């Protein structure tokens, strides 16, 4: 089990709110976009820290999430998330960056790459999808892993009224983020999370309009797509859609891993990323 997270508290005043960020490593700058939403960067830090030998990892919490500010909920949009990322890049005086997005963070990473192509040198997409139009597959995967009808419905419909509600929901769903053999990891991965139920509910609503399938061919930077063979929520079928649509993309499927490939299969994950960066530098 990893030690408790005690990062220095760094904030940037950006677009009417405060964005929390934390840097690890040196090398090519990399904006690390967490998923959830309603979660924060701590399900990626310190897990991704070993990449600090080749990347300057800039972990941050999206507005309305984690340790960042709580601006009006109507400002939580894909356009604003991308604008915040661009403002953070400029605040830190970074040139073109590697963008690493996981899960919902991958949605934002794709949006950012499409809105600010000159700001992105490389794109790493982990456990994500170009649209959320495959609920039947998610439900089937959840039931295959033993989820009840009530749990399946709660995942799709949301309904968390408080941060504590969201914490309990994550405790119920958490093991499904990992392969059947890796379910014990959920407690460690989410242990330091600062939850935001309002952000999750608001951003869940954005999924109805999220669909970049027709624009994937506009992503022109080298792109690495990483998928877990046992991912319940963003299964390999969605990674293949990304690979088929993005011209300069490479797809790597990590066998025996669930939604958090960098936690369950760290060695092959880090080897894949380092090798890909070397070949595409």
3D architecture notes:
With 281 residues, this protein is an alpha/beta fold. It has a single domain (10-279), classed as Alpha/Beta hydrolase fold, catalytic domain (Rossmann fold, 3-Layer(aba) Sandwich). Helix content is 35%, strand content 18%. It has 10 helices and 8 strands. It has helices spanning 78-91, 104-115, 135-144, 149-157, 163-173, 186-189, 197-206, 236-245, 261-264, 266-279; strands at residues 10-14, 17-24, 28-33, 55-60, 97-102, 120-126, 223-228, 249-254. The protein has an 8-stranded mixed beta sheet with strand order 1-2-4-3-5-6-7-8, sandwiched between helices. Strand 5, helix 2 (104-115) and strand 6 (120-126) form a beta-alpha-beta unit. Helix 1 crosses helix 2. The protein is globular. It starts with 9 loop residues before the first strand and ends with a helix. The relative contact order is 0.15. Mean pLDDT is 94; it is low at 1-6.
Number of domains: 1
Structure classification: alpha/beta
Q: Work out the strand percent.
A: 15-25%
Q: What is the CATH architecture annotation?
A: 3-Layer(aba) Sandwich
Mean model confidence by pLDDT: 94
Strands of the widest sheet, in order across it, are 1-2-4-3-5-6-7-8
| Tally of alpha and pi helices | 10
Span of the ends, CA to CA? 34 Å
Q: What name goes with the CATH superfamily?
A: Alpha/Beta hydrolase fold, catalytic domain
């Amino acid at each position: 089990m990893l030690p408790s997270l005690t990062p220095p508290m760094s904030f940037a005043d950006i677009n009417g709110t405060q964005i929390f960020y934390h840097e690890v490593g040196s090398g090519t700058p990399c904006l690390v976009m967490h998923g959830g939403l309603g979660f924060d960067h701590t399900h990626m830090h310190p897990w991704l820290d070993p990449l600090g030998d080749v990347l300057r990892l800039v972990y941050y919490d999206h507005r309305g999430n984690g340790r960042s500010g709580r601006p009006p909920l109507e400002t939580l949009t894909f356009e604003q998330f991308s604008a915040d990322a661009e403002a953070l890049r400029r605040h830190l005086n970074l040139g073109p960056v590697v963008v690493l997005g996981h899960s919902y963070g991958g949605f934002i990473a794709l949006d950012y790459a499409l809105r600010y192509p000159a700001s992105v040198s490389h794109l790493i997409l982990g456990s994500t999808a170009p649209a959320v139009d495959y609920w039947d597959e998610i439900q089937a995967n959840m039931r295959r892993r033993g989820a009840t009808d009530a749990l399946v419905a709660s995942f799709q419909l949301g309904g968390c009224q408080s941060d504590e509600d969201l914490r309990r929901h994550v405790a119920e769903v958490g093991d499904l983020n990992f392969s059947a053999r890796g379910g014990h990891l959920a407690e460690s991965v989410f242990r330091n999370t600062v939850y935001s139920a309002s952000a999750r509910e608001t951003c869940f609503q954005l999924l109805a309009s999220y669909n970049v399938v027709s624009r994937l061919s506009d992503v022109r930077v080298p792109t690495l797509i990483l998928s877990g063979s046992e991912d319940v929520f963003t299964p390999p079928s969605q990674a293949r859609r990304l690979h088929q649509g993005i011209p300069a993309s490479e797809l790597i499927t990590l066998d025996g891993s669930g939604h958090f490939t960098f936690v369950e299969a760290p060695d092959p994950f880090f080897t894949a990323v380092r090798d890909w960066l070397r070949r595409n530098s």
